[in-house]
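Consider the tokenized backbone below.
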């Protein structure tokens, strides 16, 4: 499972054998969330969250949005066009 980004003790992961639509898993501190990327221009959207607070989700969305281009490129490298 390639970790494509790390921030604030969290890992952003794209699984190589995962399904469309383009999305990432954010894992850490006993929590996990999935975000659809809506490549290439976003918006990043929460799909599922397990134990992250709403405040944490907003912060994660902000970071993912700031890295959207790179995340979409990573998804495409593993899966083809988003």
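A designed sequence for it:
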């Amino acid at each position: 499972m390639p970790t494509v980004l790390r921030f604030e003790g969290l890992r952003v992961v794209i699984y190589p054998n995962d399904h469309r639509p383009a999305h990432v898993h954010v894992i850490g501190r006993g929590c996990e969330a999935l975000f659809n990327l809506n490549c290439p221009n976003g918006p990043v959207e929460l799909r599922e969250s397990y134990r992250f607070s709403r405040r944490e989700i907003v912060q994660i969305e902000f970071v993912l949005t700031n890295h959207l281009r790179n995340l979409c490129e990573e998804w495409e490298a593993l899966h083809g066009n988003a």
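The CA atoms of residues 19 and 48 lie 15 Å apart.
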